[in-house]
Design brief:
The complex is a heterodimer of chains A (about 375) and B (about 280). Chain A has helices at about 15-25, 95-110, 120-125, 175-180, 190-215, 225-230, 235-240, 250-255, 300-320, 330, 340-360; strands spanning about 10, 30-35, 40-45, 70-75, 90-95, 125-130, 160-165, 165-170, 185-190, 260-265, 270-280. Chain A is of the alpha/beta class and about 375 residues long. In chain A, strand 10 and strand 11 form a beta hairpin. Chain B folds into two domains: about 5-95, Elongation Factor Tu (Ef-tu), domain 3 (Beta Barrel); about 100-235, Rossmann fold. The longest helix of chain B has 14 residues, at about 210-225. With about 280 residues, chain B is of the alpha/beta class. Chain B is globular. Chain B contains five helices and 15 strands. In chain B, about 50% of the residues are buried. The chains are: A alpha/beta (about 375), B alpha/beta (about 280). Bound molecules: flavin-adenine dinucleotide, iron/sulfur cluster (2 copies) and FE2/S2 (inorganic) cluster.
Chain lengths: ~375, ~280
C-alpha cells in the first residue's frame, strides 16, 4: 500500500458498508442515523450497522464535542481513584468539517493549558475520526463566513467523500493510514476523473454555502472580531436579548462552547463524588461571585459575553474564531435569535461607524 | 498536579482560629506538601458539598501545612465555618501566577489591603519579612469596616510595624469604643499626609474588594505610581482553577491561570475591570 496522501476508491466488487464495517472492527462505533425528518443523530453500536448507520449529508444535531467532553462526566469518588473507568477504543463515522474543526478549540483548552486533562487526552487518543464531505446543508449553515468549508482538509484520521462517480477515501494520520491498509482488499487507487469530479463538487458545494451565507448578509473573510469589539457598548445586545429566556441551549448545543462546572455531591451509595457538567454563560449565576456580586448581571451582557468569547477572546489567544458556522445555536434558540443576524448587525453598525468616522476625517 | 487535575488531595484541618465574627483562619495539613508562592491560590473542597478558591495566608516557605483565612459568605464558606479541628477537606493547587517577588528587590513596597483581602497580603508579608534586607522599605496600609472586622489583629505582635524598615497604618470606616487609630476610608491613608512614599519607582500591591481596589488604584496613580508597578489580586467566579472551565474570564485573560495577580498595566484597558 502506498504512502499517506494516496487517495482510494472502493472496488466495484465491494460496498461502503463493507469498508466501514472493516474500519470499525470491534471498536465502539458512533455513526449518523438518518431520523428521516431532515436531521441526523449519533447512533452508538458495537460496530458499523449496514442499513442503520450512514455518513450523512450534513452534520448531526448534537455536537461532536459530546463524545470528548461529555455533558455529564463522572470524575470520581472522594479518595477512590479506581472509581473512574477507562474508555474503550472508539471510531466515529460521518464527522462534518464544522465539528471536526471545533476539536481544535478543545485541544487547546484541554491539552495545551497549564494542566492537560488526561480524560480528554484518553478520549482523543482512543478515538478514530472518520470525516465525510457535506453533500448538502441545513438552512442554518454558514461555515464559509467564518473561514471554514463543507469538507475536511485536516484533523481527520480518514476522510470519505462521496461523488456520483464513486467514493474517495484518504487517510490524514498514521492510525488512519494503518486502518486503511487493513481494509485494502476493498480499495483501489482513485483515478484522475474521480478526483477531478470531487474538486468540481467541492467548489460547487462551497459556492452554494457562500450564497447561503450571503443571503443572510455574511461574507467570507469578514472581520467579525473588529465588529464585535466595536459594538461592545451597542444597543444591539439588549435588542437581541429581549426575547432570550436564558435556557442555555445555544451554549450547550454549540460545537465549540467548552465551559463547565465541577459539581460536588453524594453518589448513590452515599460517598462524596465529583462530576464535570457543561455550564452556560447565558445563565445568570455563571459568573456570579460571593456576596451577591455579578460582573454580568444583565441578560444582554451575558448574550454579549458569548459573542465576545467566540469572536474576540479566541482570536486573541488562538488566532481563530470559536465558531465554525454549524448554525446549531440558531436552530436551538427558542427566542429565534439567529447568530447570523447578530453578526450582521454588528458588522453593519461597525461599518456605519467607520464610514461615519472617515466622512468626518474627509470634512 | 495531573493526578489531581479535577480531584483534590485530602487534607486535615489542624487548627481553626477566629479572626472576626465572620472570618476564621484554618490551618490545613494536606497528605502531601503543597509548595506555593505568595499570591497563588488553591481550591479548597468540602467533600460532597463544593469547592471554592482561596489564597493561603501563611508563609510560602512552609509547604507541609497552610493557613487559609476564610470569610463566611455563602454555601461552601458557611459549611467550612461549621467544620471542626480534625475534619477532612480537599485541596487542589497551587494555582495561578504569584507576585513577581524578585522584581521587588531593593525597592520600596507598599501593601494596600482591605477587608479579608489581607489573606494573600499576609502571605506576601511573611515572605518579605524573611528577607527584609532585600527590600528598601515596606509600607502597609490596611482598611477595615470596623475595629472588629480587622483581620490578623495580632499582626503587630508578629513584628509587622517594628523599626524603620516597616511602616504600618490601619484605618476603620467606623470607629468603636477603644479604637484610637485612624477613622476613614483606605484612600484617605494613601494621601500625602499619611503616606510618605517613593511613588515613581515604588511597587504597590493591592488586594481587597473591587470598590476598594478601584479607588485605591486611582489614588495610587494620582500619587505617581506607574501602572506596571501596581499589582492587583483579581477575583472572579471560578470552578476549575486551571484555565479550562471559562468561569473566570476577564477580557483576554483567565484570572485563574493568567492571574490572579496582574499589574494594573495588563488589565487597565478592560472596560469591565472593576465589575464584581
Ligand atoms: C483567586 C481567589 C482567591 C480568593 N481568596 C480568598 C480568601 O483568601 N479568603 C476568602 O475568604 N475568600 C477568598 N476568595 C473568595 C472566595 O472564593 C469566595 O468567597 C467563595 O467562592 C464563596 O463561596 P461560597 O460557596 O461560600 O459562596 P456562594 O455565594 O454560595 O457562592 C459563590 C459562587 O460560587 C457559585 N456556587 C455556589 N454554589 C455552587 C455549587 N454548588 N457549585 C458550583 N458553584 C457554586 C455561585 O454561583 C457563586 O457565584 C477568593 C476568590 C478568588 C477567585
Ligand atoms: S456548517 Fe458547513 S460543514 Fe457544517 S454541516 Fe453545514 S455545510 Fe457541513
Ligand atoms: S438559546 Fe436563545 S433563548 Fe436560550 S439562552 Fe441562548 S439566546 Fe437565550
Ligand atoms: S476557573 Fe476555570 S477557567 Fe479559570
Amino acid at each position: 500500500m502506498g504512502p499517506m496522501g494516496v487517495k482510494w476508491t472502493i472496488r466495484v466488487s465491494s460496498s461502503l458498508d463493507e469498508v466501514m464495517a472493516s474500519l470499525a472492527g470491534e471498536r465502539e462505533t458512533y455513526a449518523l442515523q438518518d431520523l428521516k425528518n431532515g436531521h441526523y443523530q449519533f447512533a452508538k453500536s458495537s460496530t458499523w450497522q449496514p442499513g442503520f448507520h450512514t455518513l450523512g449529508d450534513y452534520r448531526q444535531t448534537e455536537p461532536l464535542k459530546a463524545l470528548f467532553f461529555p455533558a455529564r462526566e463522572f470524575i470520581g469518588k472522594w479518595k477512590d481513584p479506581s472509581s473512574r473507568k477507562p474508555m474503550p477504543e472508539r471510531i466515529v463515522f460521518g464527522v462534518k468539517n464544522c465539528d471536526l474543526s471545533s476539536l481544535a478549540i478543545f485541544d487547546q483548552v484541554f491539552l495545551q493549558g497549564v494542566c492537560p486533562d488526561p480524560y480528554y487526552a484518553e478520549a482523543r487518543a482512543k478515538t478514530i475520526l472518520v470525516s465525510s464531505d457535506c453533500n448538502s446543508q441545513l438552512d442554518v449553515c454558514f461555515c464559509p463566513a467564518v473561514g471554514e468549508q463543507p469538507y475536511a482538509t485536516k484533523g481527520f484520521d480518514i476522510n470519505v467523500a462521496s461523488t456520483p462517480l464513486g467514493y474517495i477515501i484518504e487517510s490524514g494520520t498514521e492510525p488512519g493510514e494503518r486502518l486503511l491498509q487493513s481494509a485494502q482488499q476493498y480499495l483501489e487507487p482513485a483515478h484522475e476523473e474521480l478526483l477531478n469530479s470531487l474538486k468540481t463538487q467541492r467548489a460547487e458545494r462551497y459556492r452554494e454555502l457562500v450564497e447561503l451565507s450571503q443571503a443572510h448578509g455574511l461574507e467570507p473573510g469578514t472581520d467579525f472580531r473588529t465588529a464585535i469589539e466595536t459594538t461592545f457598548e451597542s444597543g444591539l445586545w439588549s435588542d437581541f436579548a429581549e426575547d432570550c429566556v436564558e435556557c442555555g441551549a445555544c451554549n450547550f448545543i454549540c460545537c465549540t462552547c467548552h465551559c463547565f462546572l465541577l459539581a460536588d455531591g453524594m453518589d448513590a451509595d452515599g460517598t462524596a463524588a465529583r462530576t464535570k457538567l457543561w455550564d452556560a454563560c447565558l445563565y445568570s449565576g455563571f459568573a456570579a461571585t460571593a456576596g451577591g456580586g455579578n460582573p454580568r448581571p444583565l441578560r444582554a451582557e451575558r448574550l454579549r459575553n458569548r459573542f465576545d468569547k467566540k469572536f474576540s477572546y479566541f482570536p486573541q489567544v488562538m488566532d481563530r474564531y470559536a465558531c465554525d458556522g454549524c448554525g446549531r445555536c440558531t436552530e436551538a434558540c427558542i427566542a429565534n435569535i439567529d447568530i447570523r443576524d447578530v453578526l450582521r448587525r454588528a458588522v453593519d453598525e461597525c461599518d456605519a461607524l467607520h464610514a461615519h468616522s472617515s466622512d468626518h476625517r474627509a470634512n | 498536579m495531573s493526578a489531581t487535575l479535577y480531584m483534590p488531595i485530602p487534607a486535615i484541618i489542624e487548627r481553626i482560629e477566629d479572626e472576626t465574627p465572620d472570618i476564621k483562619t484554618f490551618t490545613i495539613r494536606p497528605v502531601e506538601p503543597i509548595p506555593f508562592a505568595a499570591g497563588q491560590f488553591v481550591e479548597l473542597a468540602v467533600p460532597g458539598i463544593g469547592e471554592a478558591p482561596f489564597t493561603p495566608s501563611s508563609s510560602p516557605k512552609i509547604s507541609e501545612y497552610m493557613e487559609i483565612t476564610i470569610m463566611r459568605t455563602g454555601r461552601v464558606t458557611d459549611w467550612l465555618h461549621t467544620m471542626k479541628e480534625g475534619d477532612e477537606v480537599g485541596v487542589r493547587g497551587p494555582m495561578g501566577r504569584a507576585y513577581p517577588i524578585e522584581e521587588f528587590h531593593d525597592r520600596e513596597i507598599l501593601i494596600v489591603g482591605g477587608g479579608c483581602g489581607v489573606g494573600p497580603l499576609r502571605s506576601l508579608m511573611l515572605a518579605l519579612l524573611e528577607d527584609l534586607q532585600h527590600y528598601a522599605r515596606i509600607i502597609v496600609r490596611y482598611g477595615a469596616r470596623t475595629p472588629d472586622s480587622i483581620v490578623f489583629k495580632d499582626a503587630q505582635m508578629h513584628g509587622w510595624g517594628q523599626g524603620d524598615a516597616l511602616d504600618v497604618m490601619l484605618t476603620v470606616d467606623e470607629a468603636a469604643p477603644g479604637w484610637n487609630g485612624h477613622v476613614g476610608l483606605i484612600t484617605e491613608i494613601l494621601e500625602e499626609d499619611y503616606l510618605d512614599c517613593h511613588a515613581s519607582d515604588g511597587i504597590a500591591v493591592m488586594c481587597g474588594p473591587p470598590v476598594m481596589m478601584k479607588f485605591g488604584t486611582d489614588k495610587l496613580l494620582e500619587r505617581g505610581y506607574h501602572p506596571k508597578n501596581i499589582y492587583l489580586s483579581m477575583e472572579r467566579n471560578m470552578s476549575c482553577g486551571i484555565g479550562q472551565c471559562g468561569h473566570c474570564r476577564l477580557g483576554r485573560y483567565y484570572i485563574c491561570k493568567d492571574g490572579p495577580v496582574f499589574s494594573y498595566q495588563e488589565v487597565q484597558a478592560n472596560p469591565r475591570l472593576w465589575d464584581d
